[in-house]
Design goal:
Length: about 270
């Protein structure tokens, strides 16, 4: 049962209805990477190259020469910083459901020569249901200094009202470096609320690559959160239990800072 309002997951709004209209504040796609090739290296000594043949077509080549074609969208988040959203139909991973796309989402930081890659798949569980699972990997560009984006609790204590469309608004409370609470203030999910596990990587000042996995529905979101510009942009991957379909949506939002919580120092309380 959902901890939101007692409804079972199958009784919740369909994902297409929830996320399908949340593109009003999404930034336009950028063609900046078209014609470029990026070589990546990780701490295990693995190499991979990505050839961006056009504004939405990329080929990955690993060290053994194995190639896979993907479709992608790139969005400029800040100067030399991009969200890259890839989907591949010809990649098979051990835990993924055959025939369903594999998602790869990047925080590409050309300023520092770093890339954090999140791979997301739909999986079959032992109880016969399907869920969404992801793994994070850290790479750097060939020729750049080795490094990685670090996990951060810098969003802790921040509360933002995010507006995704004329009707969809969500209240986000970032509790610490690994959890946040959300509630839908208006829109399809109005009245629903949830506490979810998160992770955030510090990309630049007040800029985070942030993700969460819901525990009631098979949904995972990865996005950039810019607390200076009060904007967010990202994508969600899900499995629609109503229709039995893979779901991929891109979204954007503008935010209003509601408050920043700071705790007073611990001190003895007077009795009497």
């Amino acid at each position: 049962m959902s901890e939101q309002d007692g409804r079972a997951p199958g009784e919740l709004p369909q994902l297409d209805a929830t996320f399908g209209g949340q593109t009003q504040y999404r930034a336009p796609f950028a063609g900046d990477l078209a014609g470029r090739s990026l070589g990546l290296v990780n701490a295990d000594g693995q190499h991979a190259s990505y050839v961006f043949a056009g504004a939405h077509d990329v080929t990955r080549v690993d060290a053994q020469g194995t190639t896979s074609r993907r479709r992608y969208d790139a969005t400029a988040v800040r100067e030399d910083t991009y969200l890259i959203d890839m989907l591949s139909d010809d990649v098979s991973l051990p835990d993924s459901v055959p025939g369903l796309p594999v998602s790869e989402t990047w925080a590409l930081d050309l300023r520092r020569g770093l890339a954090t890659l999140v791979t997301t798949v739909v999986t079959d569980r032992a109880d016969g249901t399907r869920w969404v699972a992801s793994s994070d990997a850290h790479w750097w560009l060939e020729g750049a200094a080795p490094g990685r984006h670090e996990r951060s609790s810098g969003m802790a204590g921040v509360r933002v009202l995010w507006q995704y469309s004329d009707t969809d608004r969500y209240d986000h409370i970032y509790l610490n470096g690994s959890s946040f609470a959300w509630q839908c203030v208006s829109g399809t999910e109005q009245g629903l609320t949830e506490l979810d596990r998160t992770r955030a990587y510090a990309i630049a000042d007040d800029l985070y690559f942030f993700g969460w996995s819901e525990h009631v529905q098979p949904v995972e979101s990865m996005l950039f959160v810019d607390l200076s510009a009060m904007k967010s942009i990202g994508r969600m991957i899900g499995w629609e239990e109503h229709t039995g379909a893979f779901v991929h949506h891109q979204f954007g939002a503008v935010g209003t800072l509601l408050n920043r919580t700071t705790y007073p120092p611990l001190r003895p309380l007077a009795c009497g």
